[in-house]
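Dear colleagues,

As part of the handover before I leave the project, I'm documenting each prediction I ran so the next person doesn't have to rerun anything. This entry is a single chain, and its sequence is reproduced below.
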Amino acid sequence: IAATQPSTNWHLKENARDHHTSKFSSKELIVRRGQAFIVTFNGTEQPEQNLTFIAETGPKPSKLAKTQATFGISSTVSKESWSAVLQSTSSNSVSISISSPPNAVIGRYKLSVRSTSSDSSSPASLGTFVLLFNPWSSGDDVFMPNKAECDEYVLEEFGIIFAGNKNHINSFGWNFGQFQEDILNICLSMLDRSLNYRQDPATDVSHRNDPKYLGRVLSAMVNANDDQGVLLGNWSGNYDGGKSPSSWTGSGEILQNWKKSGFKPVRYGQCWVFAAVLTTVLRCLGIPTRTITNFSSAHDADGNLRVDEFYDASGNHLDRAADSIWNFHVWNESWFSRSDLGPSYSGWQVLDATPQEESGGIYQCGPASRNAIKEGDVDLDYDCPFVFAEVNADCMYWNYDPATGKKTLMFSKSTVIGQFISTKAVGRDDRVDVTNDYKYEEGSKKERDIFKKARKKLGLEDKFDPTAPTPQEIDQKPDIAGKFKVAGPLEVGKDLNLILVLANLQSDAKTVHVNMTAWSTVYTRRPVHEIWKDSIPVTLSPKEEKQFPIKISYTEYQQQLTTDNTIQVTALCHVEGGIQVLVQRDITLDNPAIDIQVLGEAKVNKEVDVEVIFTNPIDMEVTDCVLQVEGNDLLRGVLEIAIPPLKASEKSSTKFKLIPFETGPKHLLVNFSCDKFADIKNFKMVNVID
């Protein structure tokens, strides 16, 4: 090889097209494993059969660890190892097709070439390239046979996340932005900042061929606990010193901020933010991934498949148990095979980056095979008992007397947890319900059998649990039944009207003392501020049903509301001579609407005007109004626009210009905040033409 540095043509356009990496905005070659790519270089004066290539990754490349490969030119592609096949030669250049095995380590590689004939020559560097997982290749652990699913779960940068509560599901758009500039580099540096890499870099890199290893490591790195990872969680309702979790509209800004600050955790995240960022990172690396929302999600802290909630005599929900039932929780599913468990456990795997419980001493969760969850195989790796409880735990509601420490069971339910498990449809903006993929039908014999199987595998059947209710307590029957009905709109800025319905189930009269409270909460149902309380005496004739209207005015709740717009209303009914009855409802209030209009046709590299319209629906002024706008291929980064205060019922119109830089269907996301309304979101599909 000549002394001059060879110049390399990486055929960026053709290789990217063949490898489904055209969306990356990079001057570096990005290809997928188990598939050939073309490279042409000059400066070699040797006959090509004398060339040896070296591909290496990580700090200590070694053949044994599969982080280094040396290979000459052969006539055919090898399935097991790296290989090079000659494409063409001219007087001063050589074109080679290089293939990596389908189980190669992913990451940034150095490629060099040396002449076999002269021992003394040191290899000449051809440059670097990045190797990713390949869901389009049947030999890869992440192979996904359905092309439309590959498009959605690897290449789609826009997502929809479901939230709210089981009575009232709402959704918002998210910009995953996995192909934005520098995101791939940030994802690779995330791997190099993990605890595993810090403890033993060479071993960590040698495991980077395994999606279940990377999924687990990244579930730890997306939260800041243990490892100075990406996002700091905060569920207090007070988000001073950072951005409120509900104000983000995409992952790009979060990942860029993490890097810009010298890798200090970004403030603040809650479950959907952790899940969205993990989706971005895994899609970027080529692992098919989606977000999943579970409504009425159990956080079973003590691993007994039971969640205990405590209320005092006034009906206040006490924040004294480690267990909790969240209005919703968002986690991830990633698609890959489980050679460690066997083919029946391959497919969708649950990963969860929200720091809830430690696993192996750090805050990480998964991969838990979704099939294992459905079949109650909770003894399989990783963290199946926790995920099983999230969708299946039994709920116990206790009355607790703080003075004496005495607790009495009010009632228990085995059908509350794990409802309307939701994800975005492939290629459409609709909700798809995947509850049946997590469990057999609620209340069916099969579902109860699986629950017993799981309890048995966890050793809960044989162990005496002093905190568990007695069979007598579980079997006791209440004398009355109650529920809260909604009577009017559930909107921020309007009064909240409810009806408490109480029914006497017995054929003798009942005297009841009802204590009612309303608290603002975070979406985890953690109480933040008391809004209202009242108590009423009630007498019910035999089999009588009575209705009691309740009105909580906007002025009463306005200052107490969290950015989640959630209120928990509780009525604790003390029935004379009978057991206490708890009636409760979690209410999510909708924000007012915001409207997006694209004025004219959106064309590549041409200005187009966008108008965002918001009408202040309340009879007082709103101040501190800020509009945030982002959208891949429509604008770079996040646009922030300050809007003047709006008087009662005043309409505001904000115009700004976009210059789209790619054709196709793109999504524009907006987020509007002011002192009275937090994070009003909307998105609009913009079809960009040539």
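The chain has four domains: 8-132, 151-458, 477-588, 594-688. The longest strand covers residues 527-540.

All the best with the project,
I.
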